[in-house]
Design a protein that fits this description.
The strands form 5 sheets. The chain has a 6-stranded antiparallel β-sheet, with no helix packed on it. Helices cover 6% and strands 40% of the residues. The chain has 262 residues and is mainly β. The protein has 1 helix and 20 strands. The protein has one helix at residues 230-244; strands spanning 7-11, 14-18, 34-36, 42-43, 49-52, 63-68, 71-72, 75-79, 84-89, 95-102, 107-114, 124-132, 138-145, 150-157, 161-166, 172-174, 181-188, 197-200, 215-217, 223-225. A hairpin with an 8-residue loop joins strand 17 and strand 18. The protein folds into 2 domains: 34-114, Immunoglobulin-like (Sandwich); 124-240, Sandwich (Immunoglobulin-like), CATH 2.60.40.10.
Amino acid sequence: MRRLVACTAIIGGALVLAPGRAWAPPPISAFPSVILPAPGTTAPSNARIWVFGSNAPPVDRIGVELTIDGIVVPNQLAAVGCCAVTATLQNARPGTVSATVTGTRNAVHTTFTLTRSTDVTAPVLDSARLLDDSGGQLVIGASGTDEGGLAGYVARSGGTTVEGAVPPGLLLIVRPSGDRCVDVTAVDLVGQESAPRRVCGTVSTTDAGIADGGIVDGGGGGCATTRGDPSLFFLALLIRSTAGRRRPRRPAASTRTPSSTC
């Protein structure tokens, strides 16, 4: 699915419409960018600390300062592909958690409250929609719910390779290879994941025609194509019809030989 936007130019006295990229969403900023649970919130006693950001360094290059009610608590770091790291609290107990995570350039901090409750219910992925597939990348908007709090969304290819991970409110921007499909899941603060939804882009990224590019599998085996903005669709039709309109033919030159008079 290509998003189109009208660009105008005056060429030879005529107003010309040309298609172009309607928008270019920014990727998540460099690691560490976002830390969850968010400051001032509550989380179940079995929650992990989640840190998101592009190009996350190896876990042995990430620093973590973690306390509960001022007492240092050991933790175990684990990478979630390119763009997220989790810290599992050892011997966690209810109280006020203070956490600072330091990357190679900056640090992020949060203070939240661990409750006595535990979260044992997986989140629900309500939707995973392809918004754009131009330039070899898939831009996916996802939404989900969880009773103990969402950590974010993860996109995998081949069932195992993490292509991207973002917190709620940000778009997944991934560059899968092969069939250009990813399986998107919602993940909660505990690390439990929802059932996946498959999202696919067009196999060819060079087709400039009007094509339906996104496929979203609702998990039932059937696929449904996603549709773009109707106004953009009709604009594309206008562009195509204008480009294919023939110029009027000029009358053919006469081949008759003029008669001569003697």
